[in-house]
Amino acid sequence: MKKGHQVTMKEIAKKLGVSVSTVSRAMKDSPELHPDTKKRIVDMAKSMNYQYNLLAQSLRISRSKVLGVIVPELTSHFFSSNISGIQDTAYKRGYNIMICQSNESFDQEKANIRTLVSSQVDGLLISLSRETKTYEHLQDIFDRGIPFIMFDRVTEEIPVSKITVDDAHGAYLVVKHLLDQGCRKIAYFSGPEDLYISKKRKEGYLEALAEYGLSEKESKVYFTDLTPEMNRQVTIEMLESGDLPDAIFAMIDPVAVDVMIVLKEKGIKIPEQIALAGFTNNPTSAVVEPSLTTVSQPGYEMGQLAANHLLDQLEEIVPDDPQSFVLLTTLVPRNSSKKKS
Amino acid sequence: MKKGHQVTMKEIAKKLGVSVSTVSRAMKDSPELHPDTKKRIVDMAKSMNYQYNLLAQSLRISRSKVLGVIVPELTSHFFSSNISGIQDTAYKRGYNIMICQSNESFDQEKANIRTLVSSQVDGLLISLSRETKTYEHLQDIFDRGIPFIMFDRVTEEIPVSKITVDDAHGAYLVVKHLLDQGCRKIAYFSGPEDLYISKKRKEGYLEALAEYGLSEKESKVYFTDLTPEMNRQVTIEMLESGDLPDAIFAMIDPVAVDVMIVLKEKGIKIPEQIALAGFTNNPTSAVVEPSLTTVSQPGYEMGQLAANHLLDQLEEIVPDDPQSFVLLTTLVPRNSSKKKS
């Protein structure tokens, strides 16, 4: 073993042919584990000069009763709903929360993790930034035995619990609704191509089209960086091309609202000429005119579930084996897509 | 001196007839102070058995490079703009921020302060909860020499720097605009009566009325707890009373939007029958129909100023004498009040 290398739980697990969470439980002296197994793991850890006990001990002794939360941005209604759900749940269970936002920046996300970890939070709830494509920073805290889970923007690379919403199914629901209204030439206004939700919602979009006998050839995807300026520009370019769809599905409500503003400026009737739908169910979507058809994401409930699950793990009510929770979305039909009464 | 009593800087200042910030500077060994003054204060502090140096020393030695921020709620566009301004500024200057929300609860606010202080943040930026009516928790951290400033929701009771927006002037501007449009019977939809901004905005409302020769008798204030349910109910009761105004000024945009929905449901034309205006310039206000006349608050700039000022104090670029900054608001006239072209 090279000098200065810090032994990870993963390496111990590999040597013994057990799972990482079994090693983790042995380190935490969990009563669920057979004493022989526990001894075998602890002995191996010692022989490998693994440095966990000290941190684990201090975590167990001096619980701060604080959870750390990292979200990409706070101005988003969805993430602030997540936080409300996390906070209400944590508070009921005697915990406070400290929040950091990554501003969609990978570097800021790493800095946030350092900050919250040195504040000795008992655990972390993390939603990844748009820029995060590598995961050493998460692997590092995982290896150090710092409890955390991920929500909404997650990665499969790290074996911790994850809570997501069913993006593909939500997109399927809303595009199927547009098809049910008689639309056949439906454009998808997507965020950046490599974004997880861009892809997932496209899956649902294509699935609904396929169900109505429309192939991928008959789909049409416009990309935007999600800024009001680009949303506007892409809409204008689409209109100027003369190749008009009979419906637009926008990846998130704010894009749909920006599209709506341009269509109205150009005198295009919604939904008669172009039907419109979004995704998120922001408060704004109910008050624009026409009111916006969208998909409701259970942001508050996601926060509640995330906090309860992490606290259940911390308090050893449930084992800390990684679990995946997928929350369902619901269609919210409104006037922007109502072609049939 | 009674046993167990912790001596405060205020008491030392009183004994010596100097200001609290002078004592604070002596404790921090500031080069701005004359050595004789410094010695006199330090001697007095010692004789009174004042316990500051230890904490101050440790703060100075182990700077965490983290600022703590406490806001009443994160779902508010205004506070999330504040936070963006604080974070961008802090990040540029090499600091990270940790955020807690009080959920408008006094107890939660106290818990947030405890949490952030035990995380050893270098300083705090605090916006008070709606419930906060006493200030021992702030006096306590002030006496312990923990650097902090207040923004938006502030109190005059604690001698630290404060950053606010000119609420009264903003309300004056928008009500004067309604008067300029020919409205003479203007109702004010106010939040809870004892809320600072309810009062300040009422001041501006009455000032504008007075300028047009309308006395307080000709004003009409409706109170709501700011929930959508009560905003709706108050509007319906006003309509059913038959005593209709020709304009409504709502204390915040979300109230104006709720009022707008009811007026439209009842077939009342905006602005022809009732003109409408809000305050805050939320993103929603630009996309409702008719677009909402409102007052723009510089939330992001407030955050920038707050963070820069606190960091200037921490880094001793400016003395930590309390200062008051008042940011100006601007009228954003839109269609909901446009009676004249």
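qc> Chain A has three domains: 9-58, 63-165+299-327, 167-297+331-337.
qc> done
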